[in-house]
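User:
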Amino acid sequence: MSTTITRHILISAMIGTLLEWYDIFIFSTGAFYVAANFMPSGSPVAAIASTLLIFAIGFLFRPLGAFVFGHYGDKIGRKNMLMYTIVISGLSSGIVGLLPTYAQIGVWAIVLLVIMRLLLGFGLGGEWGGAMLVALEHGQKRRGYWSSFVQSTVGMGLVLGSIVFLVLGAIIGQSAMVAWGWRIAFLISFLLMAIGFYIRYTLPETPVFEAAKKEKAIVSVPAGTVFTKYWRQLLLSTIIAGAVGTIWFTGSVTLPTIYRLFHVVTPELQQIGILLFGLIEILFVFLGGPLSDRIGRRPTIYIASIIFLVVLYPVIIAKSVAMFFVAMALLGIAHGIAYAPEGAMISEIFPTNVRYTGNSLAYQFGNAFIGGPQPYVSVDLGAISYLLEPVYAVVFAVIAIVAAYKFKETKDVDLTKVT
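Assistant: Predicted structure:
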């Protein structure tokens, strides 16, 4: 494979997931701006909790997207589905920047916002699995390394969103950001969508899928095969994806939100903390992927879960600016170490003819029903007692260690295996 083709494949895989993650996280990192414009005036905590609930609701359509795009991705091909997902994601996020506020149309503003978030979730449901397979099924060796490129886009999306908010805030000020500046962050999605669509238009289909078609190994209902024949792999993969997602949402949403609610950090420090988390996460994604090619996928999950457990209670009990930045750095390390291996392992565990469906369902089930609700659940538990805030994360960190132990090591699996 030539260097040019490799670069094109990687950029094609990364551009859509970068757009998706940017769209997802400008909503969470800009939660205070969203709450100020789309929620009724009243308790700031209630407004933020409601905004995070809408953030979590957006995850409900991710499994539906996984079903739909996984089904056709396993029957028609990976490339075609990725053309649809990037358009759905770009439009649904960009339109948020054009929506009227609660002060203008009342509850209909919230309804429209929820619809856009559901559509974004639907698109992401098919985007991640297809993008991962484009990388892995073209670069069949060193798959932890290739996985790193796709997985790095989650940190890149978060960093890009944080930079946009920081720069806009510095230029126009916080009052203008609350009034109208936040819209610019969402409107940027239209530009990213156009660039991504152009790049993906010439993306070749993966050789692994083409081989499966030639062997006439395509199944009529991939999801049915996954649930009947590969249900155990799906269950363990869902737990792994959800637990790793919990680390991410603790660092990208929950901890920054809690520290700002308690006025431990300013809006600027909050964004800098998120930026630090994202940058360190990107670095360790590129360390975790190649590391898993050497020592295996499972050990990286153990390492990440232990780091996560060590951080959770000290950062809640001893709140300070210094603790905030130390915890954000450690959370970035934990998630980065696990994230590239996770992407590889939950794809490698399924055969080619159901791989798009299997990895998409596992990733989206895990993040929709375990990782995604974490910010809302933790903030709600914290309203009862601050000691309850980390409980949700602790439970799934422990479960992740058990699931990884039960998981088959996949770093040497042959991806050309069709069934």
